[in-house]
Design a protein that fits this description.
Elements (H helix, E strand, L loop, with lengths): L1 H48 L15 H4 L4 E6 L5 E6 L6 H13 L4 E4 L4 E7 L5 E7 L1 H36 L1 H37 L6 H32 L7 E4 H18 L3 E6 L4 E4 L1 H18 L5 E10 L2 E9 L31 H11 L3 E6 L4 E9 L3
Parallel strand pairs: 7-9
Antiparallel strand pairs: 1-2, 1-5, 3-4, 4-5, 6-8, 9-10, 10-12, 11-12
Helix pairs in contact: 1-4, 5-6, 7-8, 8-9
Amino acid sequence: MIQKLRWKFVVIMMSIITILLSIIFASLLVSSRAQFLQLSLERLHSVIRDDSPVKKMPSPGVASPHEREATPTLVVSIGKSKTLRILKNQFTYMDEEQIEELVAYADSGKDDAGFIREYNIRYLREETKEGRIKYAFADCTIEQSSLRSQLFSSILIGLAAFFLLLLIIIHLSSWVVEPAANAWEQQRRFVADASHELKTPLTVILSNTNMLLDNPDITDEKTGERLYHIQAEAVRMKRLTENLLQLARIDSNTERPVFQTINFSLLLKRGILTLEPVFYEAGKRLEEEIEEDIKLRGSETGLRQVMDILLDNALKYSSKNAVTTIVLRRISVREMLLTVSNEGTPIPPSECQKLFDRFYRADQSRSGIAGYGLGLSIAKIIIEDHGGKIQASSDGYNTNTFSVRLPCIE
């Protein structure tokens, strides 16, 4: 439980950090893109109006760093006669035919500004007072390269920051959950110690009670009834201490089940045969639909305990003359489904998951039935140790169902 709490803390913290890092780097990237767009449009407005001189493309090996960073531009105009005139040209890598294609693409656009992805060029269209149309083009190769470099750098920095923070969070998580771990350990020790201490006096009480019940000198009926009550309550207390001891062992991870190949179909049938007379004496019936030869890797003792818990619950909480139905079948090659359904008071949907909490009793209708609310929590732990899942459901009328999914082998 503490490990789950620790990793839940790590996952929550890393999720928050990932979201924050993504927002920060995405904001920087969007900001840079907007800044490049603004600068590019300003340059296009400048060259199309001839407000500033346009630098010529430098010769290789001669240009200064500032000149090498200049964005190449192209300005053309089209008169009423549709004659193309090149006013400024830094696109030395393009011939006149390609320039005409750029103008045709820009002329077909609805907006006065746009981007030609095929050539990685941004354009601006403007009509002069003389009725001529001027087009300015800017090569955005350097801009796109800078954005790609920034994206690549952001990913590298983000990954490095993520893993560094992951190591820090994992280290801090043990410190964060330490108070809970200490409290959990103290509780576990108390439960284990108290259970051990209770076992001896309960054994003595049961032994003496059995001796008194077998004593032929005790003939008083009321005394006999009192002894039977003492015996019944002592048995209940003994079961409670055994359950508490089992939970303490599970929590401390000192008792790991030994897994082996088990014919679960056969194990389930044997369990039903054992409990069938108990149901019969209570005026209730057991019905089964068990698929043959379903096998799995698991603990026979643990799985038998789960069966006993589910059937015991069905016996306690089913209505008079009710039928309990056990169904076992494969739902895939590697998974099987066990359902135990009984007729009785429907379990509210809000309480179905709470049934597996320790010491939880569903409602007032169950309060008069013997039990401490530990059986289903033990069953859940055993099922999860086998890599399965258990859940409760109700049709809302008169049938409650406990479903167990477990991995099986071919």
